[in-house]
Amino acid sequence: MRPAGRITVPTVIPRRLSRLSDIANNLWWTSNCEAAEMFKRADASLWEATGGNPAAFIEKIGSKRLEQLLNDEDFLGLYDDVVSKFDTYMNRTDTWFSRTYPDMDGHMVAYFSAEYGLSEALPIYSGGLGVLSGDHCKSASDLGIPFTAVGLFYRQGYFNQKINHEGIQETSFSILKINELPVSQVTDEKGEPVLISVELPGRTVYASIWQIKVGTVNLYLLDSDVPSNMEQDRHITARLYGGNHDTRIQQEILLGIGGVRALEALGIRPTVYHINEGHSAFLCFELIRRNMVKYGISFHEAREIVSSSLVFTIHTPVPAGIDVFSHDAMDMYFTAFRESLGISRDEFLSLGQDPGNPYGFNMAVLAMKMTSGRNGVSKLHGAVTRRMFGNLWPGIPEDEVPVTHVTNGIHTLTWLSPALRKLFDKYLPKGWENRLYDRSIWKHIENIPDEELWEVHASLKKRMTDYVNGRIRSGNMSNSVMKPCRILDPDALTIGFARRFATYKRAALIFRDIDRIRKLLNKENAPVQIIFAGKAHPADKPAQDIIKYINDISEQEGFNGKVVLLENYNMALARWLIQSVDVWLNNPRMPLEASGTSGQKAGLNGALNFSVLDGWWREGFNGQNGWAIGDETVYASEFYQDSADSESLYETLENSIIPLYYQRDEKGVPTGWVRMMKESIMSLAAFFSTHRMLQDYIAKLYVPAMRKICDFSAGGHTDVDCQVVIRLAQWKKFVRDNWHLVSVRSAGAKTEAPVAGTGAGADGFVAAEGDGIATAANNAFTADIVSAPGAKTTLESVVSLGAL
Predict the structure, then answer these.
(1) Which runs of consecutive H residues, i.e. helices, occur in 653-688?
(2) Could you write out the DSSP letters of every residue in 386-422?
(3) Strand partners, 163
(4) Pick from 5, 55, 615, 710: CA 20 to 30 A from residue 674's CA?
(5) In what order do the strands lie in the sheet with 798-801?
(6) What is the pTM of this model?
(7) Cβ–Cβ contacts within 10 Å for residue 752, how many?
(8) Domains of the chain: total
(9) Are 155 and 240 in contact (CB under 8 A)?
(10) Would residue 418 count as lying in a domain?
């Protein structure tokens, strides 16, 4: 007799342990060591087998084992402690946000991103953008920010990577098992899935909504795999960044327009909408349409409301990284929608038109034009972004282009190793984990004895090298099967390079002089080893060629056992590396690294960064916490740039890094190295955290947007005063139509600065009440100047619109 099929008996959780499910299905556990330890203690082998995924763990543990745990007093004590901490966290009312902005109660930020890296247990991310989005949500929860997030549910996630015997990257996809994920489908009062819809050419596409709990933050993911859709449409959200241009625009319509409709269906009414990269920028059209219908106002009037509520973060420093759709595609997908907005085709297309490249619809340009708050993700990237998009504000000096910066950070407790966290508990002030943004907290790192810090680091490195060597021995690395390979040495200076493989990141720069680096790696009594990991996009052949090149080098004499390439890079492997390597190498081509965050994670764990002065490291490097590759010089020739940077890399490695690492005291501790480890943690931990990052977003972008909406609604934030909006839109139109009549009336005259509402100032100038609203005086329209009463000012020029 053949079995009819497999029967799965659901786990029955005893009442005494009923909260296990609550904790397993809230990603709060990803930054709580005790919660992870609780699951591991319940069944260590199952915890390892499930990849540290609590939802899958609960699904598989079985009722018998849970009954046994009822007699384990140590486990029950740990369980009670974790539950208590979880409940305390979830029920907080006194948070950083509530204390700092008590007048912003009732507001809500909605964050839209194409990917979220919350845990390797939920593989709906590809790299740094997704991991940053996940960390953003976690810190929003920690700080008590009223915040909800929107994305797409990719049932096949991002691709799995194998590197075959020839060094060629192979990709495959796995269908996610929903019952083993910390997700729940949103249903109505009848228990039916809540569906939203968007219009695509000739059809309506539906999507269900899945909820993920990230502490107190809810993340909602839209899923087109529903029975009422055509087969082709069920695959729209199958893969992250999968398919062709049609799939991409369909995903972005669903994310932007569908995401707004999902929030509406759930009764969530945000004040601020944060467009994280341009993928979700179509949401502005849906918001404008809704306001037009709600208030009976025009496109331009509704745009004033919407723009005031929108924040845009751009993460790319190059035009090639931005989605641009053809005008034909925009006609196909948006003609009916555009007609509902009451604007012409030319005006609609102009909203996404880059003056420097007018033949496509640029999503970043759309976001730049439609938002009132815009930022790059590091100080340097802010400047690069102002240069890239300055042509959208012709005549404005580059440093006055309205784009600020908020430097990226990391969610500290997600990325800090548990061993270091225990050490910090011992030497940092009590409650330090609740004040991660406080620089004074981190000064106490100085109190940790060198020997203790080094002992923890050495044990972490030994654990990591054992893990990697185990993968090599067992053949879990497909590129190592049947090949003789010496194992990694836990005592050798270990350099890590792990990130998305893209040509501008120059992963192979260290091999530019192959003989020189071979000698450096094999120096007698001072061995060095390098670990590489990372995925190349399936369509990026040049990046895949770099993977093959490094794989080929790793097999050569002098590099075997010195250079290791690990496959299938994900958040779990990232933790193994950033928590244990000695040096974190980063050598992108300047200024193409918008920020980068992997070095921040490594630096938090005591690794020393060795990087070009690009992205975040230009702000983080202080001369005592790591090393710089080259200087800030950017050569016109890539050849000369690579030559100069590789020479700097070799010299620093040979003359500074290697000697310092192997200089030991009588106890075998490299005291000079440990001094730099401490400086790395002390100088980087507070500033390069998403707690500080969120505080910057709040102060620079979120709260200003909240206040603008309050101004439209006479102090509230639910409904706007249409007359205020209409007057503002009319004034802006008047200024645009008459700006060509601007003339300089006088310059250099010193005068009493006019005060708003007080009447005439110098040369017939009349100040006006309101923010930037001009008023008529002596047949001229003049700009508003507001100053404290009696203040002196020099009017470099008094600009007015000529008589009309």
Answers:
(1) 658-661, 671-684
(2) HHHHGGGSTTS-GGGSS-EE----B-HHHHS-HHHHH
(3) 169
(4) 615
(5) 742-746, 798-801, 780-782, 775-777
(6) 0.91
(7) 14
(8) 4
(9) no
(10) no
